Amino acid sequence: MTNFKRKESTLTKPSKSVGPSETIAERVLNFELEITGLISCVVVLGHFLLDSPLATKCLTLSYKLGPDAYDKGVDDFFFVGFWVIAFTFLRASIMKYIFHPLGRLVGIKPFGKRQRFAEQGFMFTYAGLFWSLGMFIMYNSPHWFNTAYYWIDYPHIYLTTLTKYYYLMQMAFWFQQLYVIHMEKRRKDHYAMVTHHFITITLLVSSYYANFTRIGNAVLCCMDICDVLLSFAKILKYLGFTTLCDAAFASFAIAWPVTRHGFFTVIMWATYAQPDKYLDMLWEPEKGKYFTPFTQKLYLFLFFSLDVIMIYWFSMIVKVVYRVIQGKGAEDTRSDDEDDEDG
Q: What pLDDT is recorded for position 185?
């Protein structure tokens, strides 16, 4: 997550009038909580009080076929769009009303540090919840440690209720992250982050509608665990637990090559070597079949591009590990230095 040093008044004091020198991002951020909260409330009230079809599409899953079976369609974007707004509201609310007060309680006085502590607190909460959910889905699915089931019985058109919620909400989160990285202060790896998010969203949307949610579930699980560990390490850093922070960062530094390069390479290999053993590789959209030699190459290109970005980030992790070995402590080399304000 990027670091943004927002004015104290936007979180703890009544909003002031917007000055001409403020950027568009600052103007939006000043009223982010109110705007997204109002939109979310309108949708909820529209569904429960007015029985609005549009609000219902935003709040509930579409294309139900049975007690625990759903198809896919364009109406799913209403659900995703609502959750982009809802995640923005939840993030702002959780940061303001939970992690900022918690930061004050434990003695994090500078507002800049408390803001970053709140950002990492939300990321830890989200990533921890959805990694656990993703692992639960994968553990109870045939593709648990068996890559052949990415392709066996393809196309996997119908989804369980839990899987559809999981996949669409993950999609919404990554769209919301595009908003976050453009509204908040840019980090040194901003363009790598933007590219990573676009690739991730492309993979999520295409795998959902092309019926490759099993492999999508596996990729998400490979990625999310590192976000959990990194956020936890940063939280410990802001709390002043330097030794525990270094231990948590060591766990993250070990998990990264194992999951994001080891397990992810297995997924790339499965995409390259296995499909023609189980599929006819024909383009038949009317049957839900979209995997051809061309789409195989396209997915491999996207996977490889993602891997290149992760290798770039891993080089930064190695630098931090070197700092820890030198006794200088774990420090995120991707973040720009910021002067903290007292608050």
A: 75
Enumerate residues 6+ apart whose C-beta is below 8 A from 99: 114, 117, 118, 121, 122
**Three-state DSSP state, 65:** strand
- What confidence tens digit (pLDDT) does each residue in 292-325 have? 999 999 999 999 999 999 999 999 999 888 877 7
Lookup result for tokens 């991707």: 334
Helix or strand (DSSP H, E) at 330: none
* Distances, alpha carbon 325 to alpha carbons 246, 322, 329, in Å: 10, 5, 8
Vertex 320 angle, CA 319 and 323, to 5°: 95
Reference 226, options 264, 189, 195; nearest CA is: 264
| pLDDT tens, position by position, 9-24 | 344 444 444 454 456 6
Provide the residue type at 10 as one letter: T
Q: Is the separation of the CB atoms in 80 and 170 below 8 Å?
A: no
Q: How many Cα atoms occupy the beta-carbon half-sphere of 110 within 13 Å?
A: 11
The pair of three-digit structure tokens given for residue 199, joined into one six-digit string: 């690739």
Nearest to 222 by CA among 198, 206, 200, 245: 200
Run of H or E including 70: strand 69-70
State the pTM of this model: 0.88
Average pLDDT of the residues of the chain = 89
CB atoms within 10 A of CB 124: 21
HSE on the CB side for 82, CA within 13 Å? Answer: 21
In contact, 268 and 304? CB cutoff 8 Å = yes
Do 3 and 190 touch, CB atoms closer than 8 A? no
